[in-house]
Amino acid sequence: MILLSIAVVEEKNLVNAVVKYAFLSLTFVLVLVLLKAPDVALSAIVVGAIIIGAFLFTIREVEK
């Protein structure tokens, strides 16, 4: 997860950074499920989806 976090920060293309962030969020959710915390995993899914949507919307608006 640390390497994926570094890859997100170092990515120059913003859309690719968001895709890598999505994989990072998925990894985090899988860790939470393995730790038997499904309620926290569901919360992380919702928050991650909102953040990814906001990032993509912002990138699209800035590039206009």
TrEMBL record:
<dbReference type="Pfam" id="PF13244">
    <property type="entry name" value="MbhD"/>
</dbReference>
<feature type="transmembrane region" description="Helical">
    <location>
        <begin position="41"/>
        <end position="59"/>
    </location>
</feature>
<protein>
    <recommendedName>
        <fullName>MrpA C-terminal/MbhD domain-containing protein</fullName>
    </recommendedName>
</protein>
<feature type="domain" description="MrpA C-terminal/MbhD">
    <location>
        <begin position="1"/>
        <end position="63"/>
    </location>
</feature>
<keyword id="KW-0472">Membrane</keyword>
<keyword id="KW-1003">Cell membrane</keyword>
<dbReference type="InterPro" id="IPR025383">
    <property type="entry name" value="MrpA_C/MbhD"/>
</dbReference>
<dbReference type="GO" id="GO:0005886">
    <property type="term" value="C:plasma membrane"/>
</dbReference>
<keyword id="KW-1133">Transmembrane helix</keyword>
<keyword id="KW-0812">Transmembrane</keyword>
<feature type="transmembrane region" description="Helical">
    <location>
        <begin position="14"/>
        <end position="35"/>
    </location>
</feature>
